[in-house]
Amino acid sequence: MGQDLQDARRIVVKVGTSTLTHESGKLNFRQIERIVRVLSDLKNADREIILVTSGAIGVGVGKLGLPRRPSDVGGRQAAAAVGQCELMFTYDKLFSEYGQIVSQVLLTRDDIDDKERCHNVVNTFARLLDMGAVPIVNENDTVAVDELIGINFGDNDSLSAIVAKLMKADALVILTDIDGLYTADPHKHPDAKRIPRVEHIDDSVKALAGGVGSSRGTGGMITKISAAEIATGAGIPTVIIAGETPQLLYDLFEGKEAGTIFCAR
Predict the structure, then answer these.
(1) How much is the pTM?
(2) Which among 10, 16, 45, 204 is most buried, taking Cβ atoms within 10 Å?
(3) Taking every annotated instance into account, which residue ranges of this chain make up the domain Aspartate/glutamate/uridylate kinase (predicted)?
(4) Residues at the annotated binding site for ATP?
(5) Binding site: residue ranges?
(6) Once rounded to an integer, what is the mean pLDDT over residues 119-128?
């Protein structure tokens, strides 16, 4: 299965809020450190890493001591503004411990839809990679209010696929709270089987996605399948694996089976 990915050099990795935080909404430092260590190691092995991260709103909720994610757009913008600072501070500190330099790239739908701005975005990514930095990407939730009401990128899963497509990545890997696509919801059906390989995304595959994500995030399996559809349509294999075991990335790029791979079309 992983044979398709052994030669992958430019890799976009997306990590979700539920992987980065505890139930309290506060950062799960042990988990983030694991992810950072593996990504740094892969980069040291001469792979280019672009990290698309969720978590700003969730982290902001935790840091502000709010009982739940705000229901109003202004509240979510404020939480994102607080959380983004904490998130980037943490990434910068942990990546620097492994000798890596990080950069922050905040995007909105307008940055992608406008031809000149999109060109500038691609050039910035390219120069950052040339300079050996790890671009860390998030949606600019403090200004991109459309996303906060569900009509912009839809979720950072889709954003990661768009970034992978723009940058002609060799692979997209989505780290989430489940180790792949299953024949049924494994939380409700203990006999559900993980599907190691999806050759083509059709309605039957989408029907396996179930509902939305956790209370801390906005995604769910359906947004990951939608992201896979975007990326595989651009010729980029996409993999969903468990974020709690980021060392599976080693297996993946060594040609071993891990998670669910959606084959490039």
Answers:
(1) 0.91
(2) 16
(3) 10-241
(4) 14, 176-177, 218-224
(5) 14, 54, 141, 156, 176-177, 218-224
(6) 97
**136-164 tens-digit pLDDT:** 999 988 776 554 434 445 579 999 999 99
Cα 15 from Cα 4, distance rounded (Å): 22
First to last CA, the chain: 15
Tell me the binding residues for substrate. Answer: 54, 141, 156
* Structure confidence by residue, pLDDT tens digits, 71-111: 999 999 999 999 999 999 999 999 999 999 999 999 998 89
Q: Kindly give the residue spans of alpha helices, DSSP state H, lying in 155-254.
A: 156-166, 203-206, 221-233, 248-253
Residue carrying the six token digits 């492994």: 98
How far apart CA 26 and CA 16 sit, in angstroms, is 14
Residue boundaries of the structural domains of the chain: 2-262
Tokens encoding 227: 């992201």
Q: Could you tell me which CATH class the domain 2-262 is placed in?
A: alpha beta
Contact 12, 173 (CB under 8 A): yes
Reported as half-sphere exposure (CB side, CA atoms, 13 A), residue 65 has a value of: 0
Q: What are phi and psi of 212, to 5 degrees?
A: -80, 175
Going from the C-alpha of 255 to that of each of 11, 218, 241, 265, the distances in angstroms are 15, 32, 14, 19
pLDDT, position 153: 57
Q: How far is CA 47 from the centre of its chain?
A: 17
Which value, to the nearest 10 degrees, does the dihedral of the CA atoms of residues 80, 82, 84, 88 take? -170
